[in-house]
Amino acid sequence: MSVSIIEMSERDFEICNEELSSFRWRYIDFQPSGKPLLFSIYSEQHLVGYVHIILMKNAPDEVADGELYKIFIFPKYQKKGYGKKAAKLAIDWIYQNCNELYLEVVDDVIDFWDKILGGYSEQYSIRLEDPATSNTTKYIFSKN
């Protein structure tokens, strides 16, 4: 199974919003501060979900920090490995284009992320930020 992430087209945006309409998110949101980047997740010729990355920087000439804001795999493709592969591709994209990676994980899916994040300890220094403040765990990855 090959998985790729590509810049999201308008057509993919509409399909993703339609898929989200029955979930609590309802639509792709642009509330976070920073520059949103949307990527379609494809396996072969099939759109299976999307990745939402936020680029944040304090000055125009500064290299951005990236937040892996959201990954959504359409229900019929869940639990088949697409999310894991897409998450790795998104982390790799952020690693190549940003100074730091921010990731806030809802506790319900912490096991999923623990499996993925273990492979990045050589590339990044990983630290937790305010782990007791909510039902989420916040990770900050800095390049070694």
UniProtKB/TrEMBL annotation:
It comes from the Bacteria. InterPro entries: Acyl_CoA_acyltransferase, GNAT_dom. The keyword Metal-binding does not apply. The keyword Transferase applies. Pfam families: Acetyltransf_1. Gene3D superfamilies: 3.40.630.30. Keywords: Transferase. One of its GO terms (molecular function) is acyltransferase activity, transferring groups other than amino-acyl groups. Residues 1-144 form the N-acetyltransferase domain. This is GNAT family acetyltransferase. It comes from Aggregatibacter segnis ATCC 33393.
